[in-house]
Amino acid sequence: MFDMMKMMGKIKEVQSKMKEAQEELAQIEVEGESGAGLVKALVNGQKKLLKVEVDESLVNTADKDVLQDLIVAAVNKASAEADTLAKEYMKKHTDGLMPNIPGFDLGNMFNG
């Protein structure tokens, strides 16, 4: 027979583990670069931009559009890597907490 109280306890445990894992994701840092390292972006596991570094050779150029495009590319690379790491991290830290229900992905529960 289905034990509703046991299931509710499991849900609370999952919520607690998910909150803890999300807080830990803020500590993960991933760097993305573009233009052969001329622009670097650092994001955390929550996809928050922490730092942008621009090589001095670009600062003196009049080509503002190139600089902006390189910054966007570096941030997008770092963000994509952080997303991959966050999904792996969440999967690892929530594995076995809930039954394997097709279509129910805990790794995506708090992304967005």
UniProtKB/TrEMBL annotation:
SUPFAM superfamilies recorded for this chain? Answer: YbaB-like
Specify where it is mainly localized: cytoplasm
Tell me the keywords, alphabetical order.
Coiled coil, Cytoplasm, DNA-binding
UniProt function note: Binds to DNA and alters its conformation. May be involved in regulation of gene expression, nucleoid organization and DNA protection.
**Gene3D superfamilies reported for this sequence:** Nucleoid-associated protein YbaB-like domain
Which family is it part of?
Answer: Belongs to the YbaB/EbfC family.
Which superkingdom, per the lineage? Bacteria
Subunit info?
Answer: Homodimer.
Q: Where in the cell is it found?
A: Cytoplasm, Nucleoid
The record ties this protein, via InterPro entries, to: YbaB-like_sf, YbaB/EbfC
A Pfam match: YbaB_DNA_bd
The molecule here is called: Nucleoid-associated protein N6H18_15480
Q: Which residues form a coiled coil?
A: 4-31
